[in-house]
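Reagents: none. Just compute today. WD repeat domain 75.
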Amino acid sequence: YVESGITVSVKVYSSSSEECVHDLQGHTDLVSGIVRNPSNHLQVYSCSADGTVRLWDFTDGILIKVQPHSLPRSFAIAASFFLFQLVAVHLPLSGDQEVEARELSAVLCDVSPSGAASFGRKVRVVGLPGTSVANKFFLKPGNKKGAKNAFTCVSCHPKEDCIATGHEDGKIRLWRNFNQKKEYTYSTLHWHHGAVNTLQFTPEGTNLLSGGIESVLVQWHYTQENQKDFLPRLGGAITHIAVSPDGSLFCTSHSDNKITIIQSCVKVSAIIQGLVKGEGVRTDLTIDPRSKALVLNGKPGHLQFYSLHRDKLLYNLDIVQQEYIHEEGLDQFEVVKAAFDTRGDWLATVEERTQKGSELEINLKLWAYDEQTQSFMLNTTVTAPHEDQIIAMCFSPSPEITMLVTISFDGHFKAWLLADHSDTKAEGASWSCDFVGGYHHLKPGCCCFSADGSLLAVGFQEVVTVWSPSWELLTTLSQPPGAIRELCFGRLSCSKYLLGTSTKNQLCCWNLLTCSLEWSTPVDVSLLQADPLSENMAAFCSQSGCSDLFVFKPGEPRPLYSQKALCTGKVQRAVFAPRDQMLESCEEHAQWLNRSQLYFLTQHMLMVDDSVAVTPFYLLLGKHRQQQEALTNPMAERIQLPQGSIAIKELLYTPAHVLPSASFLCSMFVRSLLISSSSAR
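Predicted 3D structure written out:
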């Protein structure tokens, strides 16, 4: 995820503990390649689209050298695809930390921008699909219907003159005799039913590893081509394979943002899982009240519980509970909705499947948290809970009742009640429909409970209806033309307000005490999100292909914070995540982030808007600046240094090589503890 803009880094993980050891930051754009320094096994090179090659000591997490070059596009180590050429970049030897790499030479021309490159024993570089050097390998298009033999990947044998290439038709071809006067030859290996995504020879060349969409690591014996070993069910499609220098460990990266470490194709020894990258996020971004983990779509048919504070996947919860088949064109169940109750005792999910020529299949599932397994267990499954697609659902926050409300395109909202509320943990407790509601045969679009659960608001096209827990229609609220898209109750001191957005680009605020429109403003709000720990609300507005952010309180006319062009594209999902510890002090414009952080999802990435730079010595430096301002302004109020400051605690545990000089920190810290003579008087 991204904090205050795009943050890219090279992370160093332990292959045994799976923990992140170092986070090497310095690149300002996409990191496109990493490789160990062949002359020093404790160093690693990284290259980036920011136009630099950086040399790191990855054991200590220290940047050794930065080497800018004149190529403006992303490239691979020692080679770059630029203007469809493969270019070698000579890295000069120098003692300076920053040395520009000026010596460039074109190695191959007419190279596809989506091609691959590999180094061999005698052949310097092999590129795909064509080269301008001594040899070119061609394959005629397949004559059979549907045959696809385009090149997808390449790997050179480390000891012999042999090149392995992967193809779209799932075949692997081993090319030989290309360095001789006679015509080259090739043999064919075939197991993959989809395209071969990656190939890698082991260091001694005794085995060839391949991977693809099947999520199976295949190990081919080089001297016995018909003999192969398999390691199946590794997760997402295999996109890359790496082998340790001694050949004892294999490493596979996957399309679901996972790295698997394998002991010589025998067993999985470690898994490093980032935020699971699926085909799309259908659920909202939600926070598990117990673990404070971010919950959203994960593996197909699963929900992932991801710790934002530890930047680590906690676990995947299997919702569909069916084996997922990795094949295009199959209609399989997808998790489309998820919601927690306020205590985290219950989880509600909706899964659906659309099959050609048949009706939409929908399942509503209620999951109870099990203290023994520390996970959610399936309690109730409701088949076809509505006659049409479920649009939204939410739990009542009232401590007196355990209730879920769902709304659907079938024109109704339903209240689901736990049958035995006296003992919610009892094995016999189950859910049933308690009430079915509607309004003049209009289709509902959104719903929301008030903070205490005493009111339920349901938007029926252009009408907002307000219901009591006994299902009495209390009132209807009018608003300017346009269907209601979202509803959100105010919290704490602003609990008397109800906010809504409409398709006619209106943001409206009603006063529930007077049942009248308090204010409205013409703005295209694509997403409205309330902070559960404060009165603050965040509104994302779409304008000119970008999204703007406004943070405000419903009862105050001026926004607390605004940022134009926060990101490109439309914000699709957002959630406020509580902090582990409340910030003790920060800039005035960022006080709305004292208790929570705002995470939001665009089409391409998950981001966090955190205007407060939370570094180990941020508060200490901020205190120093405030004191300097206080000396120039005698009327300024002196701010006391917080006791047990988080910054000071983290300062003591921060590695010394990333801190400012001790003399600078010491003098500044001592001055922060002194009381000026004017303040003493």
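The two ends are 50 Å apart (CA to CA).
Action item: order primers for follow-up constructs.
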